[in-house]
Structures are given as C-alpha cells and as structure tokens.
Amino acid sequence: MAFEYQHLEASLASEKLSRLSSDSTSTLQAIDDLDYLSDNTELGYKISIRESASGWIKSKWPWVAHAALLIISCGMLASTLILRSSTLLLVRQISAWSPADISVQYDHVRYNLTTKGNPFVGAGPEVDRVWREISYDMGDQWISKSDLWKLDMPETSLKTNHPTTGEEGYRVGMEVFHHLHCLNLLRRVTYKQYYEPLGGEFAHGPEALQAHTDHCIEVLRQNIQCNADIGLFTFYMIPDDPLAWPELNSKHVCRNFDNVRKWALDHSVGNMEVLED
C-alpha cells in the first residue's frame, strides 16, 4: 500500500513536471512568437515609412524640380541685374552723363590690325559704304527737355520734334560718330587723288579742307588724351632686323559698338548739314 502511494506521488510529480515543461515551452514559444511579430511589425512599419516617403518623393518630384529651376532662374536674373546695375554705375562714374548709357555693354576684344583684306582700308565705293555705316547713317538723335537739363546744355539749343510721338525735344549728335566722321575725313585726305575729283569737302578749296582737317585732328587728339588708354603691348624681334617690333594685336575691354549704334538708330531724327567749327 505504501509502495502504491509513493508510486502515485511519483506519477503525479512526473505529470506536474511534464506540464510545467510543456507550459514553459509554450511560454517560450509565445515569447518567440511575440518577438517575431514585433520584429516583423517594426520591419513592416519601416517598410511602410520608406514606401510612403518614396511615394511622396515621386508625387512631389515635378514640383521639387520646378522649384529648383525657379530658384536657379531667379538667381541668374538677380546676378544679371546686379551686373547690369554695376556696369551702369561704372559707366556713369567714368563718363559724362548720356541717355545712351543704358546701351553700354563691355566686351573683351583682341585688336586685329591687319590691313590686308580690311574693308575699312583704301578708297572706293565699298570702302565708303562701310565707313558710312559706322559714322553717318545713324543721323542725329532726339532727346527730351529733361535730358538736356541733365546734360547741362543751354535751352537755346536746336529744338526738334520726336519723329514718332511729336514730343518737342532737342536735336543732338553722338560724339563717337563725330570722331569716326573725322577719322573718315583723314582717310579720304590720304587718298586725295581718288576723292578730289568727287568734290565733297575737296570742293570748297584747299584752305577750307585744311581747316576741316586741322579741326578733326584736334578733336581726335583731345579724345585720345581724354580716354588715355593704359593698355600695354609687348615687342618682338625679327631675324636679321636689329629693331624691335611692337605687338599691337593686344587685348582691350571695349564698349559694344553695335549696341551703341542701335541706340542711335532707335533715336534718330535723320541727318542735316551742319557747319564744322
């Protein structure tokens, strides 16, 4: 009887141990399951966030691209305006005021002093044509009364009406074209044999021609000294020649002549004959 009781206790103990082991295994399995679910839930959450972010980026990308292009465009416009205003400020600091200063643009230019094949060298109808294009065809220009006041010129200056609006203003000429006119006169004088039979400034006699020539030389002298180009040129040697030769095809910063010419044409009131001083 005692043996059976002990055997029963042993069986009960074994069963409890088995249940405990089973419960422990179930608990561990449950914990593992929870960990798995937690890991997968976190992974799913991360994947969901990435997919959401990716979707947002894809949906917003055109707007982002447009915004970037807009910012770049605004930056370029701002830099252009700043550069333009800086150029205008510089022009007004180093030059007498002119309503044409809005046309000024500076270019880097290397001189080409080759005379062979140069359309501005020599005499003849084609040479005369290209010189007219840069010195005469623009005519005189119209400016307003307020512009005349800024120029500090007398109100007794020759008046004229605007060719389009009819507004009363003043007739003016641009210095650059007067200088080129003078230079063109010197060119014709050096080809006197060709131009004298054609009349023009040669038709008024040698004294008038000499006075006109002296006037132009003085105009150009003062202009050259006023602008006083401080650019530099170098020298080079030629074999068997003891003298140094100047390298005059040098770099310069020049006002864009085409822009200035266009401004003159846009404000032109045509040509009229005037007496030279």
UniProtKB/TrEMBL annotation:
Residue stretches spanning the membrane: none
GO terms for biological process, alphabetical: mycotoxin biosynthetic process
Pathway info: Mycotoxin biosynthesis
Family: Belongs to the ustYa family.
Protein name (record): Cyclochlorotine biosynthesis protein O
Origin species: Trichoderma breve
